[in-house]
Amino acid sequence: MVLLPLRCLFWGSLLTAVHPEHTACREKQYLINNQCCNLCPPGEKLVNDCTETINTECTRCKTGEFLGTWNSERRCHQHKYCDPNLGLRVQREGTSETDTTCTCNEGLHCTSNTCESCTLHSLCPPGLGVKQIATGVSDTICDPCPVGFFSNVSSALEKCHPWTSCKTKGLMEIQVGTSKTDAVCGPPPRIRALVVIPITMGILLAVLLVSACVSESPGGEEKWPRSKRLRLCVRAPWRTRRILCPPSPLLRCRRPYTAASR
């Protein structure tokens, strides 16, 4: 029973001697030559590793360079270049600790999260409205127009518009709206009748007047007495009389009766 603990102690000491334990460095340190050295802070790069008597030597990144984390890097990273030929512009200038941020010019958006190039905003076609306007880093988001709304243009800005309310305008709906077209309004049937009837009567009266005048022309037959034709011309609406009863036909209508004309 005594030999077992002694054997365990022996083998444990032997393994410890053969495989020495690695040194564990603290946070913001790195291991080099079995020694823990301090990392360089953001904005600085490593010049020389530490020794038993000297601490880690770091230096500031140059203009146009940066390092954004605690590091043991010997070179700083170059700031991103926002190429105007690709539609890019600087959104935020870089520092020794941060990189330059690029965005796209007006009417364009980034093609990726890293914004290496730009492309035109998408247009929402008819039947779709803009749900979210595009930005320098995101494209247009379109949404179908719901019932009662329409969009009849391709646009990167226009939302869906509500159909025209014919009832509020005292009109009746002649054609129902769709997602691409507005509702079409028109006058009620009674109002339409009040407009159509006088026009129809005016046209019929004009036809009668023309027929009466033509019958008095050479070779024509007389269909109405002279007095009746004159009454028709006089009683006709002013505009109809002016247009369809010019002086020359009226003069023909007023010619005195002769035996030949009868």
UniProtKB/TrEMBL annotation:
<feature type="disulfide bond">
    <location>
        <begin position="37"/>
        <end position="50"/>
    </location>
</feature>
<dbReference type="GO" id="GO:0010557">
    <property type="term" value="P:positive regulation of macromolecule biosynthetic process"/>
</dbReference>
<keyword id="KW-0472">Membrane</keyword>
<dbReference type="InterPro" id="IPR020435">
    <property type="entry name" value="TNFR_5"/>
</dbReference>
<dbReference type="GO" id="GO:0045935">
    <property type="term" value="P:positive regulation of nucleobase-containing compound metabolic process"/>
</dbReference>
<feature type="repeat" description="TNFR-Cys">
    <location>
        <begin position="60"/>
        <end position="102"/>
    </location>
</feature>
<keyword id="KW-1133">Transmembrane helix</keyword>
<dbReference type="GO" id="GO:0009897">
    <property type="term" value="C:external side of plasma membrane"/>
</dbReference>
<feature type="domain" description="TNFR-Cys">
    <location>
        <begin position="60"/>
        <end position="102"/>
    </location>
</feature>
<keyword id="KW-0325">Glycoprotein</keyword>
<dbReference type="GO" id="GO:0035631">
    <property type="term" value="C:CD40 receptor complex"/>
</dbReference>
<feature type="disulfide bond">
    <location>
        <begin position="40"/>
        <end position="58"/>
    </location>
</feature>
<dbReference type="InterPro" id="IPR052135">
    <property type="entry name" value="TNFRSF5"/>
</dbReference>
<dbReference type="GO" id="GO:0010468">
    <property type="term" value="P:regulation of gene expression"/>
</dbReference>
<dbReference type="GO" id="GO:0002768">
    <property type="term" value="P:immune response-regulating cell surface receptor signaling pathway"/>
</dbReference>
<dbReference type="InterPro" id="IPR034021">
    <property type="entry name" value="TNFRSF5_N"/>
</dbReference>
<feature type="disulfide bond">
    <location>
        <begin position="124"/>
        <end position="142"/>
    </location>
</feature>
<feature type="repeat" description="TNFR-Cys">
    <location>
        <begin position="103"/>
        <end position="142"/>
    </location>
</feature>
<dbReference type="InterPro" id="IPR001368">
    <property type="entry name" value="TNFR/NGFR_Cys_rich_reg"/>
</dbReference>
<keyword id="KW-0812">Transmembrane</keyword>
<feature type="repeat" description="TNFR-Cys">
    <location>
        <begin position="24"/>
        <end position="58"/>
    </location>
</feature>
<keyword id="KW-0391">Immunity</keyword>
<keyword id="KW-0677">Repeat</keyword>
<feature type="signal peptide">
    <location>
        <begin position="1"/>
        <end position="20"/>
    </location>
</feature>
<keyword id="KW-1015">Disulfide bond</keyword>
<dbReference type="GO" id="GO:0006952">
    <property type="term" value="P:defense response"/>
</dbReference>
<keyword id="KW-0675">Receptor</keyword>
<feature type="disulfide bond">
    <location>
        <begin position="61"/>
        <end position="76"/>
    </location>
</feature>
<comment type="function">
    <text>Receptor for TNFSF5/CD40LG. Transduces TRAF6- and MAP3K8-mediated signals that activate ERK in macrophages and B cells, leading to induction of immunoglobulin secretion.</text>
</comment>
<dbReference type="Pfam" id="PF00020">
    <property type="entry name" value="TNFR_c6"/>
</dbReference>
<dbReference type="GO" id="GO:0051240">
    <property type="term" value="P:positive regulation of multicellular organismal process"/>
</dbReference>
<comment type="subunit">
    <text>Monomer and homodimer. Interacts with TRAF1, TRAF2, TRAF3, TRAF5 and TRAF6. Interacts with TRAF6 and MAP3K8; the interaction is required for ERK activation.</text>
</comment>
<feature type="domain" description="TNFR-Cys">
    <location>
        <begin position="103"/>
        <end position="142"/>
    </location>
</feature>
<dbReference type="GO" id="GO:0038023">
    <property type="term" value="F:signaling receptor activity"/>
</dbReference>
<keyword id="KW-0732">Signal</keyword>
<dbReference type="GO" id="GO:0023035">
    <property type="term" value="P:CD40 signaling pathway"/>
</dbReference>
<dbReference type="GO" id="GO:0051094">
    <property type="term" value="P:positive regulation of developmental process"/>
</dbReference>
<dbReference type="GO" id="GO:0042113">
    <property type="term" value="P:B cell activation"/>
</dbReference>
<feature type="domain" description="TNFR-Cys">
    <location>
        <begin position="24"/>
        <end position="58"/>
    </location>
</feature>
<protein>
    <recommendedName>
        <fullName>Tumor necrosis factor receptor superfamily member 5</fullName>
    </recommendedName>
</protein>
<dbReference type="GO" id="GO:0006874">
    <property type="term" value="P:intracellular calcium ion homeostasis"/>
</dbReference>
